User: Fold this.
Amino acid sequence: KLTGLALQPVITPELVQGQVHLKCTYNQPSSKMPLQYVVVWSHLSIPGKKEQIQEDTTLESFSYIEMNGVNLRLGDTVFCTVTAFTRDSPEQQSLPEESQGFYAGIKFLPESLQIAEDGKEHVLTILSTVPITCPGHNDSCKITLQLSTKDLASQLLGPPDITLSACQVDLLQAPCSGSSCAAALVTVTAVTDFAVDGNRVSRITAEPVGWRDLLWRAYTPKDVKVTVQDLPTGNCYSFTDPHIITFDGWRYDNYKVGTFLLCRSVLRAFEVHVRQWDCGGHQSATACNCGVAAQ
Assistant:
């Protein structure tokens, strides 16, 4: 056996003659013996089970495999396993070393979200771990993803509990860096629905649109699970002649005639005005609500 070679294979994506390839790179030990390498490519056919798709014997410190959309598709988790042996004595082999799994496709970061009905925006990063190709001279080098939301119990509770800042995002071709070859951002906000409907689970789906390339046409990325924490809604009141109860339960009366600012947000462009008229006549100085305006 050949020992202590530390081949440490790593998979990186690369465009080769306009086509998406994965490259397995490994260390070439400074050995006096001439070495050859057997590189076995495999992917997860079902969770926990690997299926071999290609085997190369090479003198080089790398090996390529094409993502052709047939035996290697977007959405696959890919591995390369490297074994070294001496050319003079093929029976002298190293122990096989396997790379970490490389997920080829669209990734969402984070993969799931837990948010609350508090109006805060949460950033969701959408990235492609493989390069974006340019299928023709007149086509721009991008993938357009159609985003949508759905509630897992929508038949019972109505529309989804979340809203997105965009319905479509473009992943534009860019040099691959780390695990990203193209990225876009979208913000997710929980809908403040004034309903006591408990914690609900919604999903964000993404679907490539208008793409003629076989690799992308048959691909649907995994959904993003979003759990929305239900928060109690504040209430305030103005009623009869008018008695007013504020959000925090403070009570007072306002018997005057005129137009008044009932409430205003200090965080956003939102306010409510109320108009009161005389409804007590000569017997009592009393006013009642006659109109309301909300921005």
In short: The longest strand covers residues 35-46. The longest helix spans residues 154-157. Helices lie at 154-157, 214-217.
